[in-house]
Design a protein that fits this description.
This protein is mainly alpha-helical. 75% of the residues lie in helices and 0% in strands. Helix 1 packs antiparallel against helix 2 and helix 5 packs across helix 8. It is globular, with a radius of gyration of 17 Å. The chain starts with a helix and ends with a helix.
Protein backbone atom coordinates (compact mmCIF):
# COMPACT_ATOMS: atom_id res chain seq x y z
CA UNK A 1 0.00 0.00 0.00
CA UNK A 2 1.32 3.41 -0.90
CA UNK A 3 1.18 6.58 1.21
CA UNK A 4 -1.56 7.95 -1.06
CA UNK A 5 -3.62 4.77 -0.57
CA UNK A 6 -3.08 4.99 3.19
CA UNK A 7 -4.32 8.58 3.19
CA UNK A 8 -7.30 7.54 1.08
CA UNK A 9 -8.08 4.79 3.63
CA UNK A 10 -8.01 7.37 6.42
CA UNK A 11 -10.36 9.69 4.55
CA UNK A 12 -12.67 6.89 3.43
CA UNK A 13 -13.04 4.71 6.52
CA UNK A 14 -12.12 6.65 9.67
CA UNK A 15 -15.64 8.00 10.28
CA UNK A 16 -17.30 4.63 9.69
CA UNK A 17 -14.92 2.83 12.03
CA UNK A 18 -15.36 5.56 14.63
CA UNK A 19 -19.17 5.19 14.48
CA UNK A 20 -18.88 1.44 14.92
CA UNK A 21 -16.54 1.72 17.90
CA UNK A 22 -18.40 4.54 19.65
CA UNK A 23 -21.71 2.66 19.26
CA UNK A 24 -20.12 -0.25 21.10
CA UNK A 25 -18.23 1.48 23.89
CA UNK A 26 -20.17 4.76 24.27
CA UNK A 27 -17.04 6.79 24.98
CA UNK A 28 -15.83 9.13 22.26
CA UNK A 29 -12.35 9.74 23.65
CA UNK A 30 -11.66 6.01 24.03
CA UNK A 31 -13.09 5.44 20.55
CA UNK A 32 -10.70 8.06 19.15
CA UNK A 33 -7.80 6.29 20.85
CA UNK A 34 -8.89 2.98 19.34
CA UNK A 35 -9.12 4.53 15.87
CA UNK A 36 -5.69 6.07 16.28
CA UNK A 37 -4.24 2.72 17.37
CA UNK A 38 -5.93 1.02 14.43
CA UNK A 39 -4.43 3.40 11.89
CA UNK A 40 -1.05 3.18 13.61
CA UNK A 41 -1.14 -0.60 13.21
CA UNK A 42 -2.11 -0.15 9.55
CA UNK A 43 0.81 2.21 9.00
CA UNK A 44 3.26 -0.18 10.60
CA UNK A 45 2.12 -2.95 8.25
CA UNK A 46 1.19 -0.82 5.22
CA UNK A 47 3.77 -2.37 2.92
CA UNK A 48 2.37 -5.87 3.39
CA UNK A 49 -1.31 -4.99 3.06
CA UNK A 50 -3.14 -4.98 -0.25
CA UNK A 51 -5.24 -1.83 -0.65
CA UNK A 52 -8.24 -3.86 -1.81
CA UNK A 53 -8.29 -5.56 1.64
CA UNK A 54 -7.73 -2.41 3.72
CA UNK A 55 -11.38 -1.95 4.74
CA UNK A 56 -11.59 -5.44 6.18
CA UNK A 57 -8.19 -5.06 7.84
CA UNK A 58 -9.22 -1.77 9.48
CA UNK A 59 -12.51 -3.07 10.86
CA UNK A 60 -10.92 -6.29 12.06
CA UNK A 61 -8.10 -4.41 13.78
CA UNK A 62 -10.49 -1.87 15.31
CA UNK A 63 -12.75 -4.67 16.53
CA UNK A 64 -9.91 -6.53 18.23
CA UNK A 65 -8.43 -3.33 19.67
CA UNK A 66 -11.87 -2.43 21.03
CA UNK A 67 -12.25 -5.88 22.63
CA UNK A 68 -8.81 -5.59 24.24
CA UNK A 69 -9.61 -2.10 25.55
CA UNK A 70 -12.96 -3.27 26.91
CA UNK A 71 -11.29 -6.12 28.76
CA UNK A 72 -8.70 -3.77 30.26
CA UNK A 73 -11.43 -1.34 31.32
CA UNK A 74 -13.48 -4.07 32.97
CA UNK A 75 -10.57 -4.97 35.21
CA UNK A 76 -10.42 -1.42 36.55
CA UNK A 77 -14.18 -0.76 36.64
CA UNK A 78 -15.52 0.81 39.79
CA UNK A 79 -18.38 -1.00 41.55
CA UNK A 80 -20.70 2.00 41.25
CA UNK A 81 -20.15 2.13 37.52
CA UNK A 82 -20.83 -1.59 37.24
CA UNK A 83 -24.21 -1.26 38.92
CA UNK A 84 -25.85 2.04 37.99
CA UNK A 85 -29.01 3.00 39.79
CA UNK A 86 -32.11 1.58 38.17
CA UNK A 87 -34.39 4.12 36.55
CA UNK A 88 -38.11 3.84 36.20
CA UNK A 89 -39.15 3.98 32.54
CA UNK A 90 -42.52 5.50 33.41
CA UNK A 91 -40.75 8.51 34.98
CA UNK A 92 -38.97 9.42 31.73
CA UNK A 93 -40.41 10.46 28.37
CA UNK A 94 -40.09 7.75 25.72
CA UNK A 95 -36.94 8.04 23.64
CA UNK A 96 -36.52 5.36 20.98
CA UNK A 97 -32.80 5.92 20.51
CA UNK A 98 -32.08 5.86 24.23
CA UNK A 99 -34.20 2.72 24.70
CA UNK A 100 -32.44 1.01 21.80
CA UNK A 101 -29.03 1.94 23.21
CA UNK A 102 -30.01 0.63 26.65
CA UNK A 103 -31.24 -2.60 25.09
CA UNK A 104 -28.03 -2.94 23.07
CA UNK A 105 -26.04 -2.55 26.29
CA UNK A 106 -27.95 -5.45 27.84
CA UNK A 107 -27.32 -8.08 25.17
CA UNK A 108 -24.04 -10.04 25.02
CA UNK A 109 -21.10 -8.19 23.51
CA UNK A 110 -20.67 -10.48 20.49
CA UNK A 111 -24.35 -10.15 19.59
CA UNK A 112 -24.16 -6.37 19.88
CA UNK A 113 -21.04 -6.24 17.70
CA UNK A 114 -22.44 -8.35 14.87
CA UNK A 115 -25.77 -6.49 14.93
CA UNK A 116 -24.00 -3.14 14.73
CA UNK A 117 -21.80 -4.33 11.88
CA UNK A 118 -24.80 -5.72 9.99
CA UNK A 119 -27.56 -3.21 10.69
CA UNK A 120 -25.65 0.02 11.29
CA UNK A 121 -22.64 -0.42 9.03
CA UNK A 122 -24.25 -2.60 6.35
CA UNK A 123 -21.63 -5.33 6.16
CA UNK A 124 -22.46 -8.70 4.63
CA UNK A 125 -22.41 -11.86 6.71
CA UNK A 126 -19.17 -12.90 5.04
CA UNK A 127 -17.47 -9.58 5.84
CA UNK A 128 -18.64 -9.74 9.45
CA UNK A 129 -17.27 -13.27 9.71
CA UNK A 130 -13.87 -12.00 8.51
CA UNK A 131 -13.89 -9.09 10.94
CA UNK A 132 -14.91 -11.11 14.00
CA UNK A 133 -13.12 -14.39 13.19
CA UNK A 134 -16.41 -16.29 13.32
CA UNK A 135 -17.95 -18.55 10.73
CA UNK A 136 -20.72 -17.13 8.57
CA UNK A 137 -23.26 -19.43 10.23
CA UNK A 138 -22.14 -18.28 13.70
CA UNK A 139 -22.61 -14.67 12.60
CA UNK A 140 -26.15 -15.42 11.44
CA UNK A 141 -26.97 -17.18 14.71
CA UNK A 142 -25.61 -14.29 16.82
CA UNK A 143 -27.53 -11.74 14.78
CA UNK A 144 -30.72 -13.78 15.09
CA UNK A 145 -30.32 -14.27 18.84
CA UNK A 146 -29.41 -10.62 19.34
CA UNK A 147 -32.47 -9.43 17.45
CA UNK A 148 -34.70 -11.76 19.48
CA UNK A 149 -33.18 -10.42 22.70
CA UNK A 150 -33.67 -6.83 21.52
CA UNK A 151 -37.31 -7.56 20.70
CA UNK A 152 -37.85 -8.91 24.20
CA UNK A 153 -36.11 -5.92 25.81
CA UNK A 154 -37.75 -3.24 23.70
CA UNK A 155 -41.04 -4.82 22.81
CA UNK A 156 -42.91 -4.82 19.54
CA UNK A 157 -41.67 -2.26 16.97
CA UNK A 158 -45.31 -1.35 16.22
CA UNK A 159 -45.79 -0.31 19.85
CA UNK A 160 -42.73 1.95 19.70
CA UNK A 161 -43.80 3.84 16.57
Amino acid sequence: MTVAEYNHAVNEYADRIFRFVVKNIRNESTAQDIIQDTYEKLWLKHEGINFSKVRSYLFTTAYHTMIDQTRRDRKTLDIEEAHPKASHPQDEPFDLKANLNRALDQIPEIQRNVILLRDYEGYSYDEIADITNLSESQVKVYIYRGRIALRKLIGSPEVLI
